[in-house]
Design goal:
Layout lengths: L5 H28 L10 H30 L2 H24 L5 H30 L4 H9 L6
Helix pairs in contact: 1-2, 1-3, 2-3, 2-4, 3-4
Pfam families: MAPEG
InterPro entries: 5_LipOase_AP (IPR001446), FLAP/GST2/LTC4S_CS (IPR018295), MAPEG (IPR050997), MAPEG-like_dom_sf (IPR023352), Membr-assoc_MAPEG (IPR001129)
Family: Belongs to the MAPEG family.
């Protein structure tokens, strides 16, 4: 079983490390711009770093849950690829936002699209599993048969 999710676990750990990195950036920004805790306002440069980290933290639970659901019920490989794309998008988002509010937009849209694909493949995987379990019908296998995708000859 673990071999079927080890790569998803690796992406999860990578995501946790990314979150820790974002948190450290807030600490460095607090020192640089003299904004002592618990203050959350200060120069615009600090507020952008603080807000970028907070936004990434707010979406992290949604990312982790959908990453694992997609990895368990759809495909570890697809889940991992989407997870890496999402983390890359969030990294670009963080640094884009730290530079300017406008710099966050393209990476934000990118990571949101990746997140929606993760939600979709996870949902498809769960629905197909439930269909096999409760109805005895496997929609993905049937679709592959119709399209001739199960032929490796």
């Amino acid at each position: 079983m673990l071999d079927q999710v080890v790569c998803v676990a690796a992406v999860t750990v990578l995501g946790v490390l990314e979150q820790a990195y974002f948190s450290l950036q807030v600490i460095y920004a607090r020192r640089k711009y003299s904004v002592p805790p618990p203050a959350t306002t200060g120069p615009p440069e600090f507020e952008r770093v603080f807000r970028a980290q907070a936004n990434c933290s707010e979406y992290f639970p949604l990312f982790v849950v959908t990453l694992w659901v997609a990895g368990l019920f759809f495909s570890q490989a697809v889940s991992v690829l989407l997870g890496l794309l999402y983390l890359h998008g969030r990294y670009r988002y963080f640094h884009g936002y730290a530079k300017s509010a406008q710099g966050r937009l393209a990476p934000l849209y990118f990571s949101a699209k990746v997140q929606w694909v993760l939600i979709a493949v996870g949902g498809v995987g769960v629905l197909c599993y439930m269909s096999r379990l409760y109805v005895g019908f496997d929609p993905l296998t049937s679709l592959c048969n119709v399209l001739g995708l199960n032929q490796l000859d």
